[in-house]
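Q: How would the structure tokens look for this protein?
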Amino acid sequence: MAVTRLVGECEKGTCATLYRVEETGDLLVQGYDVGDAGSVVGIEIPAGESVVRIPAEIIERYAREHLAL
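A: Here is the predicted structure in token form.
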């Protein structure tokens, strides 16, 4: 699966980051593991899915830089 880095928490290294999958245009999110997803109140997580936490600034920065908002 080929991905393009869109925006991240830091410019180098392995930080919370937003990627685009080249073949489909889907987005991948690298973030901080919340541990037991069942402990996140108000979210039901089905098998095969997980929850990660990312700083809101990543999405805000992507919107500013790439969506002309």
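The chain has one domain: 3-66.

The mean pLDDT is 85.

Upvote if useful.
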